[in-house]
Structures are given as C-alpha cells and as structure tokens.
Write a structure and sequence with these properties.
The protein has helices at 11-22, 34-43, 66-70, 82-90, 117-125, 141-145, 159-168, 182-204, 209-230, 240-250, 256-265, 270-276, 283-297, 302-313, 317-325, and strands spanning 3-7, 26-30, 60-63, 75-78, 101-104, 109-110, 115-116, 132-136, 150-155, 174-179. With 332 residues, it is of the alpha/beta class. It is globular. The chain binds NADPH dihydro-nicotinamide-adenine-dinucleotide phosphate and 1,3-dihydroxyacetonephosphate.
Amino acid sequence: MTNVTVLGAGAWGTTFGQVLADAGNDVTMWAIEPEIVEGIRDHHHNGVRLPSVEQLPANMTATGDRAEAVRDAEIIVVAIAAQAARRALADFRDLIPERAIVVSLMKGIERGTNKRMDEVVREALDLPENRFVAVSGPNLSKEIAAREPSATVVASTNPYAAAKVANACSTSYFHPFTSTDVIGLEMCGSLKNVVALAVGMARGAGYGENTAAMIETRGLAELTALGKAAGADPKTFAGLAGVGDLIATCGSPLSRNYTFGANLGKGLTVEEATRVSNGVAEGVPTTDAVVALGDQLHVPTPLAFAMSHVLHEGISCEQMLGELFGTEITAE
Ligand SMILES: NC(=O)C1=CN([C@@H]2O[C@H](COP(=O)(O)OP(=O)(O)OC[C@H]3O[C@@H](n4cnc5c(N)ncnc54)[C@H](OP(=O)(O)O)[C@@H]3O)[C@@H](O)[C@H]2O)C=CC1
Ligand SMILES: O=C(CO)COP(=O)(O)O
C-alpha cells in the first residue's frame, strides 16, 4: 500500500484516483474548489467532474490544503489542465517530499514555450528526471470510471520509478505497460488531441469513415514525424499511447476534443464550442504549440496548421480538408 496524492480532481484525475484506490493505495485528491473537496471527502462523490460514479472508494479522500495534500505522499500525480499546470505547480515547489515520484497524466503542449508536460512539470517543481513518470494511453475517463477493461503506458527514464507507478495503478480492469520513452508518450498524447479535433469536425460536418481514416492516418504520420524530430522512439507511435489512443479519441463522443471538433463541424463557433465543452479540450491551445514546435524542429505540420486556421480564422471543414494536401501529388 502506497500513499498517493492526485493534484486536480477533474474527470481523469478523479478516475485515476479511483484506479489507484482500487489497487489498494491510500489516495488523497487535492482540488481548489471547496465543493469538490467536500464532495469527495464527505460523500465519496465528485458531482462536478465525475457525476457518473455514485460512490468513490472509501480509501479515497480529499483536501484543499496544499501542504497537507502532499506531506506524506510517495507518489504525486498531476492531472491539471495543461496550460494551467506550470502556474498551479509553482505553489507546490517547496512542498513536495524529497523522494516522491511525480506522475503526469496531462496531454498537451504549453502554448508560448512549446514545451511538453514532462518539461513543464520538471521545471516547475525543479524535479530530477529520475523522479518523473508519464502515463498515457487510450483512457477515456468515463469508461475507466465504469471499470471497463483498458490498458495504458507508464513511462520513465528510470525503470524503477515506472515499475513503482505501474504497480500502484494495476487493477483487474486497468493494465499498465512500462516504457522508457517519455518524449514519445508525451508527443503521442498531446498531438492526437489535435487530430481528434479535425476528425470530430469532419464527423460533425457529416463525413464518414473514409474521411475519418484519412485524417487519422495523415495525423499519425504528422505526429510520428514531429515526435521523431523531438527525440521519441518511433515504436511508441505504433503502440497503445500512439495509434491506440488515436483510435479511442478520434472514435468516441466521450472525447472532449472529438466533441469540440464535432461541434465546430456542425457550425458552432470556437466560443460556443468552448462554452458547451464538458471539461478541457487540450487540443485547442495545443494546436498553436504544435505549429510552433513544427517550425522550431523544421517538420511540416499541415494538419495542425489547418486546424489553427479553423480555430483563429473560422475556416470551414471543406477548407480545412483542402489545406491538408495542397495540389501537388507526392509519394505517401
Ligand atoms: N478525461 C480523460 O479521459 C483523460 C484526460 N487526460 C488528460 O488529463 C488532464 C486533465 O484532464 P481532466 O481531468 O479530464 O480534465 P477536466 O477538465 O475534467 O479537469 C481539469 C482539471 O484541471 C484543474 N485546473 C484547471 N485550471 C487550474 C488551475 N489554474 N489551477 C489548478 N487546477 C486547475 C481543474 O480544476 P477545477 O475543477 O478546480 O477547475 C480540474 O481539476 C488533461 O491534460 C487531459 O488531456 C488524459 C487521459 C484521459
Ligand atoms: O485522452 C483521452 C483518451 O485517452 C481523453 O480525450 P479527451 O481529453 O478528448 O476527452
């Protein structure tokens, strides 16, 4: 049994907290909103972010106090909206126990710096590489909250840290695999959200399987090229965190990114789609960061580029698809 703290009681943070509790750990959730803290602590329920779970496990509690949240933690899991992570973690910098392992569940690239979440977390907490772990895979929170069978990838350059976290989140319905490719994991999880926006948009506009498959496959090529240039192991892109997560996210209305895109495809503006989104759609701010990262690493990112025109200039789905390939015929 391990003391684990989860920072951020959103849909995935709370679901992962339940996985950790089901695996036998003592879990403390930290959240800012008193309503969420009281709900989890006093009623074992997160009615704001995860209402589908009526009763969270008894070995799961919550606090709004930062120092109390992390004081005894051996593993600290970060599940905060990516663009808010650096600021939120700054308040924990001097509170994290010296030997605690820090795990990121986040899937995004920071706008402005173009940094991955492993970089943001380590910088914000002044954390050595051997205490950082990333978790990413086809993990739609609502399905895992219902304890449907699923798998994920736990990556760290420190195999001991990856094994410790994998053991801590292993249950009969949630199977972790380990990896050493942190960069690959981060790139897959972040970039597939941009692809899901585009697939969702095509679906919302009424297009079928061929169009979805076209965007997914070209999106996979784009995220593989960018990931390789960033230092990822190409094998990661063919695994659960790569093509696996792409399939889950691009194929499900449970995905906030897919749904955001679908709403754009149906004619909603970015503001309207943001208003009705059921949680953070990380692909929206990450799109600009992917374009900037592509420029930085000299890798073409036509899909992210076209999606940035959708988000900033309001171009239609047809125009977005038209921008993907240009007019020149090339080898695949
Ligand atoms: N949902 C899913 O299926 C999966 C999500 N992920 C990733 O996990 C991350 C979190 O997702 P999820 O929990 O679903 O998102 P939600 O939108 O449900 O929750 C976002 C969380 O971020 C917190 N937050 C936002 N801004 C701040 C801030 N300034 N300071 C502190 N906390 C803040 C929110 O707190 P508050 O409630 O107080 O606003 C909330 O806990 C994302 O990067 C997502 O891509 C990964 C795999 C699966
Ligand atoms: O990352 C996810 C599934 O693996 C969740 O996707 P959304 O953030 O789009 O809901």
